[in-house]
Amino acid sequence: MRQLMWLRSDLRTQDNTALHAAMGAGPTIALYLISPQQWLEHDDAPCKVDFWLRNLVELRQRLAELNVPLLIRRAPHWRDAPQVIAELCRQHAIDCVQVNEEYGLHESRRDREVAASLEPLGVRLRSHLDQLFFPPGSVLTKSGSYFQVYSQFRKICYQRLHTALPALVGLPAPQAPLGIASDEVPAAVDGFATPSDSLRQLWPAGEDAAQERLALFAEERLAYYQDSRDYPIVPGTSQQSTYLAAGVISPRQCLHAALRGNQGEFDSGNPGAVSWINELLWREFYKHILVGYPRVSRHRAFRPETEALPWRDAPQDLLAWQQGRTGIPIIDAAMRQLLATGWMHNRLRMVVAMFLTKNLMIDWREGERFFMRHLIDGDLAANNGGWQWSASTGTDAAPYFRIFNPISQSQKFDADGRFIRTWLPELVGLNKRDIHDPSAMGGLFGLADYPRPIVDLAHSRERVLQAFRSLPPLE
Ligand code: FAD
């Protein structure tokens, strides 16, 4: 029974459910589709596309060790996928196509259409749970609906994890060679610029690189995670989001690494490990939300009443935020970190998102799109969840009246200004008191190279509070 392993966001050989199933069922060929038109529609960042390509080069090698050829085909848009895959199945006499489930609306539609096009050929599409610990729809409230509150969702997850820990899937044994050559992985795809070498070096490709990073984190940093995770200058978080988003590492591998570092405990023992597992469950939560509340994939607010908010049309302010020249150092430093590295620290993602949506009162969808276009770890569910949380339009949203003051956040989480100095060389000479708000230095001490704040924090805070208070109650 010939198998086709259709790779998507699962670019690894170890602990890969569908690959394991395919190779257990028969001789296997692997496939990856290059879909630039679709990727552009999804605002996938050039650095993310480059990361996929670099990982495919590594994966091709790992698959070759298993004697699995990797074929690369172009399906510019996912609507082209059914025809491309059906053609390949005919050509190679495939009996079954194996995939790991993906959860966006477009992904689900693509898979339905591919399955329908294969049916007349007598080819099955078999999908597997792999990106998540629990299938969406299996963690529900007593009344059978999806949870809207993370802490309640997490409680059920813990109960399940205690009774049935998702097991790792072994590396399949090599198969007999099929005599089919692997395709070359393109070095670049039109429409997606190759990022700088310095960005690429921050994110080495391949399972080994991901595993090394995970092991280093679990051994040296996990124990201190809870205390260090909020300080952007400290390498206190795992930086696994990039590898998780592309599936170069699995959430099960992350969970098992955390448990190994915590004597097998989930919710007790080392507070660092517990708090990190909680983050893996945030990831899980937002993917379940994507399936349970599909409107969030359609650019709609999770809380419909917030659709009436009078967002400002302020292109100059938006541009200043995007380019990191708002005159608020912590915001500008964070945005420059994003532009230079494709990644931003979680604390700062919240701070810049609140600043855009609350102080500048610009629609969260603008921020969501800009993040997606620049993040190497861009993930629809987590990004949408993070933006809607910050804008107070989402699940578990920050109450609208709790608005971060970016300067206080800066003083608290970058107290000596080291993060700011790393990204804003123009402020390198300021002391740790002035660096958070150079505009407050007043008098003759204006900085020639650094703008004054584009918005008054106190006034803009009142403006957005008033807008939220004026929202009509939902019928
Ligand atoms: P760690 O602290 O080491 O956490 C481990 C893993 O848990 C992460 O790799 C990630 O997979 C998951 N995780 C952690 N925090 C969250 C969270 N709040 N929501 C969902 N999953 C989480 N994360 C993305 O992976 N992709 C995105 O596009 C994304 N966009 C975001 C946008 C905004 C406005 C906000 C506030 C958060 C966003 N996040 C996103 C969540 C979070 O900021 C990143 O997952 C985290 O910074 C990644 O760094 P890390 O791997 O070192 O995290």
TrEMBL record:
Any matching Pfam family: FAD_binding_7
Enzyme Commission number(s) of this protein: 4.1.99.3
Positions of the record's site feature: Electron transfer via tryptophanyl radical: W311, W364, W387
Gene Ontology MF, one: deoxyribodipyrimidine photo-lyase activity
Enzyme class name: lyase
PROSITE patterns: DNA_PHOTOLYASES_1_1, PHR_CRY_ALPHA_BETA
Keyword Hydrolase among record annotations: no
Keywords, ordered alphabetically: Chromophore, FAD, Flavoprotein, Lyase
Listed GO biological process terms: photoreactive repair; response to light stimulus
Domain Photolyase/cryptochrome alpha/beta: start-end pairs: 1-133
Cofactors, names only: (6R)-5,10-methylene-5,6,7,8-tetrahydrofolate; FAD
Binding residue positions for FAD: 225, 237-241, 276, 279-286, 377-379
Cofactor comment text: Binds 1 FAD per subunit.
Catalytic activity: cyclobutadipyrimidine (in DNA) = 2 pyrimidine residues (in DNA)
Stated role: Involved in repair of UV radiation-induced DNA damage. Catalyzes the light-dependent monomerization (300-600 nm) of cyclobutyl pyrimidine dimers (in cis-syn configuration), which are formed between adjacent bases on the same DNA strand upon exposure to ultraviolet radiation.
Family under the similarity heading: Belongs to the DNA photolyase class-1 family. Belongs to the DNA photolyase family.
Protein name in the entry: Deoxyribodipyrimidine photo-lyase
